Amino acid sequence: MKTIHTIVAVTAALTLNSCGSSLAPVRKDALKPTIVTQKLPHDTDDPSIWIHPADVSKSIIVGTDKDSDGGLYAFDLQGKILKKSIPLQRPNNVDIAYGLVINGKKVDVAVTTERENNKIRVFRLPDLESIDNGGIAVFEGETMRDPMGIALYTRPSDHKIFAIVGRKEGPSGSYLWQYELSDSGNGTVIGNVVRKFGNYSGKKEIEAIAVDNESGTVYYCDEQFGIRKYKANPDENDNNEMALFGQNDFKSDHEGIAIYKKSATEGYILVSNQQANTFMVYPREGANGNPNEYPLLAEIPTSTIECDGADVTNVNLGGSFQNGLFVAMSNGRTFHYYSWDSIQQLIDAAKK
Q1: pLDDT tens digits, one per residue of 234-279
Q2: Which residues contact 2 (CB under 8 A, 6 or more apart)?
Q3: Which residues of 94-112 are buried (b: 16+ CB within 10 A; e: fewer)?
Q4: What is the Cα–Cα distance from 56 to 126, expressed in whole angstroms?
Q5: How far apart are the first and last CA of the chain?
Q6: Of 185, 203, 235, 243, which sits most exposed with the smallest number of CB within 10 A?
Q7: Residue 114's closest CA among 67, 78, 153?
Q8: Residue 91, SS3 per DSSP
């Protein structure tokens, strides 16, 4: 196997760790962001990208501000804050889905975990208005609840939308709970448990979750252990683990996951190597004819510090983002936007 080398890019500045620790240096070979967002009041954690259906220049980044007086924030493509949601008690991760049917109309939604209230919260896009009647309780009846990670799966066959939710701690085999989101009948969203699944090493926690709708699979980071893969469709009644990879590639924590789609089946899985301030890149389609084999393709150093969450799109958003945008959280209360082209160049260089 070809040795993977971290690729030298450009020098970035120092970024302040918002958790209160001393200044942490950005790596000297870190990829420089195209845009750094305005700072949030407390602690950024996870972003998700919403594509405007009529004018891509009006697309937004939705990010969490993780605090007892936090919330969801909408940013434009220049990194300017557009709006904040109602106050939320420690929103952790966020994901976006298109076309949830409410009152007979399709609505795009951002769904976030509200950790201190043991709920998930549903917001209409792009206005960030709550449509969940105060939230959907999760992990009811469990001793450990504390919802953290979330990813949304849209089933191609019927366009039903499901939330896959992780927590601070849970039993192996049923660590993740999956909820079907639907109309309550009065114009608000409810969630019903349809599945419990997911192995857990017990080493730390499961926070980062990502769904590949086209392949019908879900990936999640078992921190300090590896990246696990399962089927996303609850109706298949298959809770067998499909793959476990990245076990020897990380300095410590496996964190945010983003999936870049080059086609319906090909692309890249990017995972935050949190304490190394890099992203590890794996082939979305697998390798050697095996869709569950994931060799490391490249390690990309970025300007982010201790990144918890990331997202990516292949949509041409104009300007520097002709082939898409990659966004990642950074300590210092910001999100960093990168041109996909700059990341692709480093992946290509690592393959040579």
Answers
A1: 999 999 999 999 999 999 999 999 999 999 999 999 999 999 999 9
A2: 351
A3: bbbbbebebeeeebbbbbb
A4: 13
A5: 12
A6: 185
A7: 67
A8: strand
Residue 124: strand, helix, or coil: strand
Q: What is the pLDDT of residue 351?
A: 82
pLDDT per residue as tens digits for the range 32-83: 999 999 999 999 999 999 999 999 999 999 999 999 999 999 999 999 999 9
Closest to 298 in 3D by CA, of 335, 259, 266, 269 = 269
Its pTM surpasses 0.90: yes
Are the C-beta atoms of 337 and 35 separated by less than 8 Å?
yes
How many other CB atoms sit within 10 Å of the CB of residue 81?
A: 14
Containing 340, the helix (H) or strand (E) segment is: helix 340-351
**Residue 59 is which amino acid?**
S
Let me know: does 322 contact 316? Beta carbons within 8 Å. yes
